[in-house]
Design brief:
- It is a single chain.
- This protein has helices spanning 2-9, 39-51, 54-61, 65-79, 95-118, 136-153, 166-175, 219-223, 238-246, 261-269, 278-284, 316-329, and strands at 84-87, 90-93, 128-133, 157-162, 180-183, 192-200, 202-207, 226-230, 252-257, 274-277, 290-293, 302-309.
- It is an alpha/beta fold.
- The strands form four sheets. It has a five-stranded mixed sheet with strand order 4-3-5-12-6. Strands 10-7-11 form a three-stranded antiparallel sheet.
- Residues 1-36 and 337-343 have low confidence and may be disordered.
- Helix 2 (39-51) crosses helix 4, helix 2 (39-51) packs across helix 5 and helix 3 packs across helix 4.
- Strand 8, helix 9 (238-246) and strand 9 (252-257) form a beta-alpha-beta unit.
- It is globular, with a radius of gyration of 24 Å.
Length: 343
């Protein structure tokens, strides 16, 4: 049963088959007399429909682009329709493809939920790989304690961690190519569920021996410094950048990076400064290599959440992992802030 469930979420690689003979001009392709019952092909159809790109679909499914093209040819032959037409903005679905999309999505959801309800999950004996999306900043906070708990309670469980752009995360979780996401990811998309783990705030960080010695620096103090900025499309931290711009706080930036953890290493070895979430700053400062100082202005608070898609809410394995994460990392909610349960 577990194998069937995983096959639905992550179909097996498509088998290579001889290419169908081309249809000559003036001839009409005939619909295959055999029913189209290959779940792999239907899953490919849904991913192409979501991403409207063969290249992106291949990356999402872990296949080569020729394999995706071959699958699309088989679909076109079986359904006697082009299904997707190449346009400057991507692979646009035909009317037939649009009509198929909704029912197929519902059908996959029904099958998946039915199998999930019949599947038992024993973490002490289970062998399964969960696919989790998080930034390198979230990795430093979550992975060490989480992997320690997994080693103690579920030795057969493994995590496959990636960093999915925030705008693609909802589709990835809906398709089952990502099981869970952790971090500051506002609005992951329709059908995505969320549980708040804790609230965080921003602080100012420099190396321990930095020339700035004030315990409470002023805006003018901070404006005179030079900065390293970490900016990733996998998190919501760009709202802080936008807020700083709105406050007309535009100091000299000498390094703009796509990753967070290397930024702290740069700060440790230079007189550069950085604005960081407090939880990450404290995690990086266990060796007292930094000074963590308050900001002289207010930035939006950070809601760190656990995200998943409602299609997989009844998956016993994912339900167990969600419970483990919540019990390990959830902190009391600050007074006056409500805990959102859906995003």
């Amino acid at each position: 049963m577990n194998h069937l469930l995983q096959a639905l979420a992550n179909p097996m690689p498509l088998m290579s088959e001889p290419a169908s003979p081309p249809v000559r001009e003036g001839k009409t392709a005939t619909r295959s007399s055999a029913p189209l019952a290959d779940l792999n092909l239907l899953h490919v159809f849904l991913v192409i429909s979501e991403l409207q790109s063969l290249t992106a679909a291949a990356e999402r499914l872990g296949l080569t682009q020729p394999a995706i093209s071959h699958a699309l040819r088989r679909l076109r032959t079986s359904l006697d329709d082009p299904l997707f037409v190449r346009t400057p903005s991507g692979m646009a679905p035909t009317d037939a493809a649009r009509q198929l999309g909704g029912p197929l999505t519902q059908a996959f959801g029904i099958i998946s939920q039915a199998l999930q309800q019949l599947t038992r999950f024993d973490p002490s004996t289970a062998e399964r790989v969960f696919k989790v999306s998080m930034s390198d900043m979230a990795e430093s906070h979550f992975l060490p304690p989480l992997l320690s708990r997994l080693a103690d309670t579920a030795p057969g469980i493994a995590l496959e961690v990636s960093c999915i752009p925030a705008q693609d995360l909802g589709a990835a979780m809906r398709a089952g190519t990502i099981d869970l996401a952790l971090g500051f990811i506002p609005g992951p998309g329709a059908g995505c569920m969320s549980e708040t783990l804790f609230w965080d705030d921003y602080v100012f960080m420099v190396r321990a021996g930095h020339p700035l010695r004030k315990r409470v620096p002023t805006r003018e103090d901070l404006a005179r410094l030079r900065y390293v900025v970490a900016d990733s499309n996998s998190t919501g931290h760009r709202v802080a950048t936008a807020r700083l711009e709105a406050l007309q706080f535009n100091p000299k930036v000498v390094a703009r990076l796509p990753h967070f953890i290397v930024a702290s290493q740069i700060v440790q070895r230079t007189d550069l400064a950085i604005v960081f979430p407090r939880s990450v700053a404290e995690c990086q400062n266990r060796g007292r290599a930094f000074r963590i100082l308050p900001l002289p202005f207010t930035l939006p608070r950070i809601e760190v959440q656990l995200h998943w898609h409602e299609r997989f809410s009844t998956d016993p394995g994912l339900a167990w992992l969600r419970t483990l994460i919540l019990s390990s990392f959830r902190q009391p909610e600050p007074e006056g802030l409500s805990n959102r349960t859906a995003g």
